[in-house]
Amino acid sequence: ATPKQIKALMKVDGLTNDEIKSHLQQQH
């Protein structure tokens, strides 16, 4: 996912920055 997609997902799902970071760490 690109940063733009991640930001869009944040808006849709209401994820926090910490949750986004944890998802990125799991993927990589």
Short structural summary:
The protein has helices at about 5-15, 15-25. With about 30 residues, the chain is mainly alpha-helical.
Q: Look at the helices and sheets and give the structural class.
A: mainly alpha
Number of DSSP helical runs: 2
Compressed to H and E, one letter per element, the order equals HH
Low-pLDDT parts are: none
What does this structure look like?
- The chain is mostly helical and 28 residues long.
- It has one domain.
- The model has no long low-confidence stretch (mean pLDDT 74).
- It contains two helices and no strands.
Question: Any chance you could write out the topology, listing elements then pairs?
Answer:
Elements: H1 3-13, H2 17-27
Please describe the structure with a list of short key phrases separated by commas or semicolons:
mainly alpha; 28 residues
